[in-house]
Amino acid sequence: MTYPELYILRHGQTEWNAEDRMQGWLNSPLTPKGEMDAARQGEILRDLDLTGFEFWSSPSGRAVQTAGIACGPLAEAVHTDTRLREIGVGDWAGRLRAELPQGTGDDPYMAQYEMAPNGEGLAAVEARCLSFLSEMKRPTVLITHGITSRVIRSIVVGKDALANPSIHGGQGCVYHLKGGTQKMLT
């Protein structure tokens, strides 16, 4: 399937990111670094022609806070959609990663999300991201989360979008997806 042009932002660093704590559907505020991450994303976006673009954000506080900093001066409105929220980590929400069983395989970091008791799982995240993307009609700026960004980029561009994965998933940068390719703007 072909999708409209996308710019994808991950929320800025949060207090829990800095502590290496699982957030999932819970929230913690941006750190001063996170506010700088969002400001940097805003600088990147200001240099682009976003005429005709829609702006959509996860409803999580950290994403909305990032959207306000990065997109507030640019967007007439930023809409929210729960399908853009982060992967649910069930019983592990709020826990330090170091306290949890470690994942195995090619990507132990991602495997840990599949292990979370009562967690959402990657297949469910992919289903809701596909649902959101199938309704897109216009070029869009998305403000979302690390895992959700990875899933969306993998759907739109393919597995090559994750060739150089970062557990930080793009804090402070913007991913540009167009014509089946991805470029990271910094």
UniProtKB/TrEMBL annotation:
- CDD domains this protein is in? HP_PGM_like (cd07067)
Enumerate the Gene3D superfamilies for this protein.
Phosphoglycerate mutase-like (3.40.50.1240)
Q: Which domain of life is it from?
A: Bacteria
- GO cellular component annotations of the record: cytoplasm
**Which EC number applies?**
5.4.2.11
UniProt entry tagged with the keyword Isomerase: yes
A GO molecular-function annotation: phosphatase activity
Instruction: Answer whether the UniProt record assigns the keyword Repressor to this protein.
Output: no
Q: What class of enzyme is it?
A: isomerase
Which keywords are on file for this protein?
Answer: Isomerase
Pfam families per the UniProt record, alphabetical: His_Phos_1 (PF00300)
Q: Kindly provide the name given to this protein in its UniProt entry.
A: 2,3-bisphosphoglycerate-dependent phosphoglycerate mutase
